[in-house]
Amino acid sequence: MTDFLLPEARTLDLAGPLADYAARGYARLGRVMSDAGLAALRARSDDLMLGRVTYPGLFFQHDAASGRYEDLPYGKGYQGPSTSYRKIEKLEKDPLFRAWIENPLFERVARSRIEGEIAIYRAVLFTKAAPGGTPLPWHQDGGSYWGLDRDPELQIWTALDDAPLEAGCVEVLEGSHRDGLATPLGGVVPSDRVRAADADARKIALPARAGEALLIHNYLWHCSAVNRSGQPRRALTICYMSRATRCLRKKRAPRAFTPVF
Fold first, then answer.
1. Which of 100, 112, 213, 259 has the most CB within a 10 Å radius?
2. Which domains occur in the chain, in start order?
3. What separation in angstroms does the CA of 157 have from each of 12, 71, 163, 191?
4. Is the pTM of this model over 0.90?
């Protein structure tokens, strides 16, 4: 299999990015994915959305017809060939995506933050289709909504396409991870908390070029707007955590998480 990691990324000095991540809640690793990797994962993304490649148990969520986050469909799964799926989860089932999830740079980052054996909570393709996609409100990736006995802290986000501001790049509230969860439930940050933090005025845009990777703390407030670039904006987010983490859900069998390192 082609090595998707750029050679210079194997020995990337992590001291600066890890310090930024601790202080700001996010950090840039720079470009780490090769042209071959970008081509392969873009093609595989299209194959999954168009049904040319399938795996049992993949999770799909389509954009809402209205374009509103509040109207997103739940529980419908794959709805037929379309490039307007908002997200696809369980990408560890695919060998190409799995190779990127387990690349040696990401292992170095994960081991610097997580003791012992490491698993993933999720590996997700987030897409904003060329027609616009769906805006994502201020949110945090943790809390009781996630149904775990402890909250993960580390996500690594990789741009598969250029993600300038007009394409709906990630926007963050720097340092917000240090205040913990806005609500015990987690997820979307309530509007009154957003106003109190003056988050919309203080947000920082993180435009990225294809192949760049970002570290994002799960508690960092982040959001993104619609895609106005006329081109697709696809990115892979991987949440790493201790393999000792357990699922707390009761209505169905507890989830089993994929070990990676």
1. 213
2. 7-259 (2.60.120.620)
3. 17, 25, 12, 26
4. yes
